[in-house]
Amino acid sequence: MNIIMLGAGYVGLVSGACFAEFGVNVTCVDPDESKIQRLHDGIIPIYEPGLDDLVKKNVEAGRLAFTTSLSKCVQKVDAIFIAVGTPTRRGDGHADLSYVYQAARDIANYLTEDHFTVVVTKSTVPIGTGREVEKNIRETNSKANFAVASNPEFLREGSAIGDFMRPDRVVFGTNNAQASEVMKALYRPLYLLETPIVQTTLESSELTKYAGNAFLATKITFINEMADLCEKVGANVQDVARGIGLDGRIGKKFLHAGPGYGGSCFPKDTLALVKTAQSVGSPVRIVETVVDINNKRKQSMADRVIAAAGGSVKGMKVAVLGVSFKPNTDDMRDSVALDVIPALQAAGATVQAFDPVAMKEAERLLSDVKWMNDTYAALADASVAVILTEWNEFRSLDFARAKSLMASPILVDLRNIYNPNEMVNTGFSYTSIGR
Ligand code: NAD
Questions:
Q1: The ligand 1 atom nearest the CA atom of 331
Q2: Alpha-carbon gap, residue 176 to 183, rounded angstroms
Q3: Does residue 319 lie in a domain region?
Q4: Which atom of ligand 1 is nearest to the CA of 13?
Q5: What domain range is 255 assigned to?
Q6: Quick one: which of 70, 145, 177, 411 has the fewest CB in 10 Å?
Q7: Residues of the chain with pLDDT under 70
């Protein structure tokens, strides 16, 4: 089979490489010339474990190619996936669909009468977008022989390849039988692994993605509020999370208390769901509350650092360990670091930070931060250290060395990666979440 992936970002590049690994011929198209040039040079533009080997292998096998121009590759493909960004639209919180509709218009000109193609929205798009994509294409090219399908992506950055190759389920929605056959053929290797395939209408498929992310964001926000309650009443949120998580109806995952969810998906998707629901007169008040609580939580994290430092960080050096929104990615989108660092700076601190992979991206988004070469360089002379991202290399700090380097031994662990009882012996003043 032959497919095109529009967008060579986190989702397009990973999905494209994984489909190629399934034996499909894939061309990834992206207007970003520097990104495509880097891919031609064998450089992976994002940090994703295992992706470099997978891309290399499939490029060498002749199944994976990259181009900036749709015109060069659109002949007789079975499916064109739209995997472009759908960020929050400035001003109103709805999903910005301009990249999706631009992609639809790009596609329309190349579809023909004599060859059937499925146009698949893999981007996370609000209910009704698939139908709008179909309308856009028909208006531009009334003779095009195509149908639209929705196939939301559930991969997680940092474990994206495993998530794509061995997903909990695949969801796709289409109202066209021929399109459904193409989608089944593309995912045939997963059928063989007995992966559950949930086939729905366009609308149900689109909503499934938002409902899933909103549910997970709610679960995180729930345990974060329990953590705050634990702090007031002397309970330990990790014990509470374990106690409820072992209940099969609740489940253990997404019950780690922390500084609030961030990343490229949950913040924008919860907000977009809230806006869609409001616009059709069926508000999702739980999700509205989750969005509000999470925003306030992220903004309040700097106050915890200031409190741990004795009430003020004015004139102090603060060491920040980790700035990506989670480990194993260089993605900074809606990372809690983007709230915490400017708030600390506004309170008079000088921030010196280290992240194993995200500093290049972070430099574009944060100003006046001293970017250090390693963990201990970031700790040098700092009056307080903050763990913002739970990278493995922060999990076994040499506390004697850290103490000798720092101006005062104060650690704020916003990811609960250390045990408070064990921290007592290190001589550090230690603050964590909900314990
Ligand atoms: P991204 O910003 O990493 O990549 C988007 C890419 O699309 C960019 O490289 C951009 O240059 C390209 N692009 C823009 N317009 C284009 C066009 N007309 N034709 C071809 N390419 C074009 O975004 P991402 O993180 O890969 O997310 C893509 C979509 O997938 C979003 O809707 C997102 O919500 C969803 N999603 C993301 C994740 C994730 O973990 N990142 C997981 C599941 C779903």
A1: 41
A2: 11
A3: yes
A4: 26
A5: 210-292
A6: 177
A7: none
Evaluate whether residue 226 is within a structural domain. Answer: yes
Per DSSP, 95 falls in state B
Q: Is residue 205 part of a domain?
A: no
Number of domains composing the chain: 3
Q: Are residues 161 and 272 in the same domain?
A: no
Return the residue whose CA atom lies nearest to atom 34 of ligand 1: 124
Residues with a known catalytic role: 265
Tens of pLDDT, residue by residue over 263-303, are 999 999 999 999 999 999 999 999 999 999 999 999 999 99
Q: Give the nearest ligand 1 atom to 269 CA.
A: 34
Exposure class string for 164-175: b at 16+ Cβ within 10 A, else e: bbebeebbbbbb
CATH number at residue 403: 3.40.50.720
Q: How far is the CA of 385 from the centre of ligand 1 (A)?
A: 34
The one-letter amino acid code at 203 reads E
| 224 shares a domain with 193 | no
Q: Which residue minimizes the CA distance to atom 25 of ligand 1?
A: 10
Residues 177 and 235 in one domain: no
**Do both 268 and 321 map to the same domain?**
no
Q: Report yes or no on 117 lying in a domain.
A: yes
| Residue where a domain stops, chosen among 292, 323, 344 | 292
pLDDT digits (tens, 9 = 90+) for 21-78: 999 999 999 999 999 999 999 999 999 999 999 999 999 999 999 999 998 777 789 9
If you measure from the C-alpha of residue 110 to the centroid of ligand 1, how many angstroms do you get, rounded to a whole number?
21
Tell me, using a 6 A CB cutoff, whether residue 330 lines ligand 1: no
Structure-token match 């915490």, residue found: 340
CA 35 / ligand 1 centre spacing (Å): 13
Whether 329 lines ligand 1, by a CB cut-off of 6 Å, is: no
The whole-angstrom distance between residue 128's C-alpha and the CA centroid of its chain comes to: 23
Whether 84 is in the pocket of ligand 1, judged by its Cβ within 6 Å, is yes
In what order do the strands lie in the sheet containing 64-67?
64-67, 25-29, 2-6, 79-82, 117-121, 146-150, 170-174, 197-200
CB-CB contact of 306 with 347 (8 Å): yes
Regarding whether 268 and 378 lie in a shared domain, the answer is: no
Domain boundary among 200, 224, 241: 200
